[in-house]
Amino acid sequence: DIERDEQIYNSYEKLSSQLPILDDWYPLTLQNYQSFWIHPSQVPSCMAVQSHFNPRPSDILIVTNPKSGTTWLRALSYATLHRHSFSISDHPLLTTTPEQCVPFLEGLFNYHTIPNISVLPSPTIFSTHLAFSLLPQSLDCRIVFLCRDPKDTFVSLWHLVQRLRISSSTEDKSIVELDFNKAFQLFSQGISPRGPFWDHVLGYWKESKRRPEKVLFLKYEEMMEDPVSHLRKLAEFMGCPFSMEEERDGVVEDIVKLCSFDNLRELEVNKDNKGSVESRRLPPSSFFRKGKVGDWVNYLSMEMVEKLDAITKEKLHGFGLSF
Ligand code: A3P
Where does this protein have coiled-coil stretches (predicted)? Predict the structure, then answer.
């Protein structure tokens, strides 16, 4: 019902237009919607997801904070779920970006129509940055949450925004530099895309403790340390465990290799010269920078490290979560 959808979206746009806009992370402007910072173009779609996203129990929702490994988890979950349909040498991930393989939920709900999820193959994997408290209350599908040390998440975010600033800069050169200290202050205050970082993580952490069969909580650092055993865990959780035969044939290792940073980054499709169909503001290569654990040592001062660690301790340690 096109007219009904149009009305729904108009009301969301009206609501979101009343929220104040913060420009400090320009061009990633932010609005505070129900305690989380969201880009204004995505606020109406978040509202639509909240009220109208109705996945099937078989579907899988992968959730991340921006810059926490979304691309990697998209690739791994997609390759694992569809491993019987494709061979590694002729795999969609060799010619399609991970973002195209696993749709972004906020993107699907961004066209002034409520998408009909039931026509999609079952199970379908969706990706989102929505905080747990912003998901529909009745959500029944499995959720995989991947988080990353806030120090590395912040450094990765700063680089991305810096890159976006340079590529979107026109005559006004004064906006080009995203002051590192200022960005750090904002991030630690909880003002960052989809932040507060710690509240975002905690929502899923608590839910993974409450309903471990429905919410799998993963850490980027642990996955980097031992991707093979984490992929086994992921496959099991998604309801498609690797068989003895697959284990013997090295399928797990093959998928890990296919989805590795070094492999994906070198593919033509993930470089910028390939004319991506996605928003030009986020070219595929902006999702592949260094792919390392602990790159923060090259950017954060001692005080900054202490500050972020102290916030993590204060907000998360009591719940048994640390980085
Ligand atoms: P760095 O900026 O620290 O390199 P997201 O996908 O959520 O935007 O996260 C991007 C971060 O994940 C970037 O971190 C990027 O390099 C890293 N990344 C992308 N693909 C990866 C992969 N296949 N394996 C590990 N890290 C990856």
Answer: none
Residue of 82, 84, 91, 129 marked active site: 129
Q: Does the CA dihedral 298-301-305-308 come out positive or negative?
A: negative
| Distance (Å) from CA 107 to ligand 1 centroid | 20
**310 neighbors 190 (Cβ within 8 angstroms):** no
| Number of Cβ within a 10 Å radius of residue 321 | 19
The pLDDT value recorded for residue 168 is 72
Give the C-alpha separation, 160 to 261, whole Å.
Answer: 17
Using the mean position of ligand 1's atoms as its centre, give its distance from the Cα of residue 286 in Å. 9
**Ligand 1 neighbours (beta carbon < 6 A):** 64, 66-72, 152, 156, 159, 259-261, 264, 287-291, 295
45-71 per-position pLDDT tens digit: 999 999 999 999 999 999 999 999 999
**How buried is 269 (Cβ within 10 angstroms: 0-12 exposed, 13-18 middle, 19+ buried)?**
middle
CA distance 83 to 289: 27
Calpha distance 232→223 (Å, rounded): 11
| DSSP structure class, residue 104 | B
**pLDDT average, residue stretch 171-194:** 87
Length of the chain: 323
DSSP string of 218-238, one letter each residue: EEHHHHHH-HHHHHHHHHHHT
Hey, how many other C-beta atoms are within 10 angstroms of the C-beta on 195? Answer: 28
Do the Cβ atoms of 285 and 274 come closer than 8 Å? no
- Tokens 């590694």 sit on residue: 88
Tokens of 296: 């923060």
**pLDDT the model gives residue 169:** 64
Q: Is 129 marked active-site? A: yes
- Dist. CA 305–CA 238, nearest whole Å: 36
CB 60 within 8 A of CB 126: yes
Helix (H, G, I), strand (E, B) or coil at 125: strand
